[in-house]
């Protein structure tokens, strides 16, 4: 499935925030860019459109009730997907739209030589 154009900026922002070499902590801080959290009176049902979103429906539904933790109206959530593997998604609490992270993170190698 091709990426929709409106998802590209979100994916780039998330990718940049997870790569410490791209930004400098000495010049920027999250406290410099505070946003007001927008919590709807009632959160809509999740819109699970892709097979991948439906595959992780249970984890996304659990995350839907978590407090807003990203950019004022998103819930950024992660979960384990195997030995040392982590994946996740972003839920827009205003619309119910879900964007899956386009990658997984792994703590490879699983052991360190001593």
How large a portion of the residues is in β-strands, by DSSP E?
A: 15-25%
What are the segments in which pLDDT stays under 50 over at least 5 consecutive residues? Answer: none
Oligomer: single chain
Shape: globular
Q: How many helices in DSSP terms?
A: 3
Question: What's the N-to-C terminus distance?
Answer: 44 Å
Helix and strand run = HHHEEEE
Classify the helix fraction into a percent range: 10-25%
Q: Helix/strand-derived class?
A: alpha+beta
- Round the mean pLDDT to the nearest integer and report it: 81
Q: Summarize the biggest pleated sheet.
A: 4 strands, antiparallel
Explain what you see.
- This protein is an alpha+beta fold and 114 residues long.
- It has a domain at 42-114.
- The protein is built from three helices and four strands.
- It is globular.
- The termini are far apart.
């Amino acid at each position: 499935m091709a990426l929709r154009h409106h998802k590209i900026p979100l994916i780039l922002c998330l990718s940049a925030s997870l790569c410490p070499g791209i930004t400098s902590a000495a010049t920027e801080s999250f406290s410099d860019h505070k946003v007001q959290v927008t919590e709807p009176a009632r959160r809509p049902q999740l819109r699970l459109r892709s097979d991948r979103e439906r595959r992780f429906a249970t984890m996304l539904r659990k995350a839907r009730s978590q407090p807003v933790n990203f950019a004022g109206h998103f819930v950024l959530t992660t979960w384990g997907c195997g030995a040392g593997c982590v994946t996740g998604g972003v839920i827009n609490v205003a619309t119910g739209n879900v964007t899956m992270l386009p990658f997984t993170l792994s703590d490879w190698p699983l052991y360190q030589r001593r």
